[in-house]
């Protein structure tokens, strides 16, 4: 009977949808395990100055899945955002990255590097976020002046006054704040004036398009000019070719991140690269 009922129930589901639901549930369970079993890692992608010297890195989350191999965050972060698992993942990322900078701080070359850490809107919104960061900074011995938190415009879907207050609290810890994927989200230009930011990152979509598409070029140009006028730093992401680099330099951009300068790579490889080019 139970079997029959089961069959009847299943008939109401679209098998394709059912498969998708199962896949999500499985991924969710696996992700829970991943955190406890040490399957997560941070990769580091160089950020360079106008001369191509490494001035920092962005920490990017990777999952060494026991069967699937290396999984990129695009495949699990959106799910983790929905389920709330991003809070535990995000905490792990912060803890790991800050501890890493605390170690770099002891090294004559690596101590000078900035480290950018992605923070999801949901993480930022937690009541304890600022307190948690304060504790993690103390425990890790990280230098807050070398740490940048990368925030996204999805933050601005909530009360902006409150967002500004949290940002100010973070900056009073000595941290820098960067607005990631700028130009793709919800922010109006007016927010750039009000938010206590240090930097914006030009979204890689504009960089990818700017040599063929005049509109992308106009947007990239305008973001750089606007950032300068507002006294903000500006980093171009997704710089893949010399032509991209030249074009951005001509527009006044001085900080870059992209495959042209290095892909995200494991810690040891990044450290070696940074020391070799210092
Ligand atoms: P993002 O923060 O905008 O990071 C930049 C993404 O662009 C990274 O993808 C990086 O590998 C990729 N990228 C960099 N240079 C190039 C290039 O020249 N060409 C191309 N095609 N891609 C380039 P990744 O590592 O797959 O991360 C994707 C997104 O996942 C990130 O975008 C960020 O939104 C999210 N993410 C990654 N790690 C974390 C994390 O620790 N916490 C949170 N909340 N989100 C994270
Ligand atoms: Mg980022
Ligand atoms: Mg980005
Ligand atoms: Mg992105």
From TrEMBL:
Origin: domain of life: Bacteria
Localization annotation: Cell membrane
Segments forming domain EAL: 24-278
Stated name of the protein: PAS domain S-box-containing protein/diguanylate cyclase (GGDEF) domain-containing protein
Species of provenance: Paenacidovorax caeni
Entire-sequence positions represented here: 605 to 882 of 882
